[in-house]
Amino acid sequence: MNATQEQLKLKFEQALVAAFGADYAGVDPILVAASNPRFGDYQANVALSLSKKLGKQPRAIAAAIVDKLDVSEICESPEIAGPGFINLKLKTEYLEAQLQAIQTDSRLGIPTTKTPQREIVDFSSPNIAKEMHVGHLRSTIIGDSIARILEFQGHDVLRLNHVGDWGTQFGMLITYLREVSPEALTTANALDIGDLVSFYRQAKLRFDADEVFQETARQEVVRLQTGAEDTLHAWKLLCEQSRREFQIIYDLLDVQITERGESFYNPLLPSVVEDLDASGLLVENQGAKCVFLEGFTNREGEPLPLIVQKSDGGYNYATTDLASLRYRIQQDEAKRIIYVTDAGQSNHFAQFFQVARKAGWIPDDVELVHVPFGLVLGEDGKKFKTRSGDTVRLRDLLDEAIVRSRIDLEKRLQEEQRQETPEFINEVAEVVGISAVKYADLSQNRTSNYIFSYDKMLDLKGNTAPYMLYAYARIQGISRKGGINFDELADNAKVVLEHETELALAKYLMQMDEIISTVEQDLLPNRLCEYLYELSKKFNQFYDRNQGVQVLNAEEPQRTSRLVLCDLTAKTLKLGLSLLGIQVLERM
Ligand code: ARG
């Protein structure tokens, strides 16, 4: 609900009380956007909903409400239509004043939330010594955008990287490391074993082929768990090398995140099992300790257990998530915990959420949300792979996007016969390439699979990053062409809305706050993308009327007013894109 709707709601409340008495104070006016702009901007359906209670015809109720309704500062006189809808049309003067007010506000008039709270976004979370794959890329992009939106709304956001930095695979990796580069373990230098992913693969080959190796690896696991110094040292070296590689990706994507990996919760794991036992939930099943789940059954229809301690005494992914959940509630005091992972992990989240609830660990004011997303597919509709069938390294994927965006740019510069410096070309190619990857991901409803296509995401037309960036740069071009500094447009620049394209743009600009609070709730950044795309189309309709002549060459006060509309559109695009983690370009 935006500021205008909130004001209207208040007015309705007063009218309802005046018409039918104090009992009607809390009644929802059921204010919705008008289904057809011909009827106005908003429509209140409350009269229909009260018909039964009041025992009157909805039209009569609507008339009684309208009689007491004072919205003259905001709307034209309300009209009653159909069975009893109350139609409201915003006054032009009202819109003009609103636009004028937000023009100099860095938040564009969007208020921060009335209920700021601590929120955790658990995202990215790749696994040490394994590759960071496209699934982690989606998590990183979506999680970052969600975190940005929550931060903008004024929440206290903790961005957590729950990296997989613990587990039996380290026994194998450390054993292999001792074999192939023993010297690495005795020097204080950072590890440099090249590509960690192929290191992992080789270690696995070695592990699978040799029983003695397997036994040594098992002993290494025990040494790691009991904290043997040299083993811990080797573990740290491996983590550091991975961390450096992840950081390259985070830097490229401009993503901030705090690492708090699985190993952090090690000391808390035994108490998870003890406390589940104390609350009577723990059951021993074939040597493993587990909790039986409701609503999850195996093929035979028998209830499924969630294992929290394996028969060999080891803990697992779920145990760690239970421990981290408690820590986040008790120590971090989080009120909403958001997990961004692929939809394939949905059961995992539903299961440990259920166990934590049963154990009474989730206070009523804490919300747990799994934010699932679909797969990244190649253009053939199959799993995204390189031509040779290998998984795509993220580094390569992002570099490729930049290379292709540079090729597009150079072609365009040639066509337009423009000369630009290498610095300009580098910057534009990088910003456009990275933005294209981010926007392609964010503009899809995250719950569906999406097809990764460089051609589509780099297209200057359509709902793409280049289109959005171009819309922004185009507006900056107007200011350059007219020698106008938008920031210096007089503070009290008057807005006059005359043409229908101006009114449509103005009304749309005022809807940004509603979109942001919707995304704050449903965590679907694609809604913001749709809004920005629609906004730039509305801008083009306004600007392209007579090829923009009506802006720079218009008479005053229209000229300044229209420039304010340009400026506000650019500022809204910039703000919206920044919430998607996308940087704008003044020129491109
Ligand atoms: N490391 C996991 C993976 O790569 C993702 C972790 C997500 N966060 C969590 N708290 N389970 O699939």
Walk me through what this model shows:
It is found in: Cytoplasm. Residues 468-588 form the DALR anticodon binding domain. It is an enzyme of class 6 (ligase). This is Arginine--tRNA ligase. Keywords: Aminoacyl-tRNA synthetase, ATP-binding, Cytoplasm, Ligase, Nucleotide-binding, Protein biosynthesis. This protein has 588 residues and is of the alpha/beta class. The protein folds into five domains: 3-90, Arginyl tRNA synthetase N-terminal domain (Gyrase A, domain 2); 91-111 and 460-588, Orthogonal Bundle (Isoleucyl-tRNA Synthetase, Domain 1); 118-164 and 267-374, Rossmann fold, CATH 3.40.50.620; 169-259, no CATH class; 375-455, no CATH class. It is 52% helix and 11% strand. The protein is built from 22 helices and 14 strands. The protein has helices at residues 3-20, 46-54, 58-68, 92-102, 134-152, 169-180, 182-186, 196-209, 211-225, 229-253, 269-278, 317-330, 346-358, 394-415, 422-442, 454-457, 465-481, 500-509, 512-522, 526-543, 549-552, 558-579; strands at 31-33, 42-44, 79-81, 85-88, 118-122, 156-161, 258-259, 283-285, 288-297, 303-309, 336-342, 367-373, 376-377, 450-451. It has a five-stranded parallel β-sheet. Strands 1-2-4-3 form a four-stranded antiparallel β-sheet, covered by helices on one side. Helix 4 packs across helix 18 and helix 14 (394-415) crosses helix 15. The longest helix is centred in the middle third of the chain and has 25 residues, at 229-253. The radius of gyration is 29 Å and the shape is flat. 37% of the residues are buried. The mean pLDDT is 93. Arginine (ARG) binds next to strand 11. Arginine binds next to strand 11.
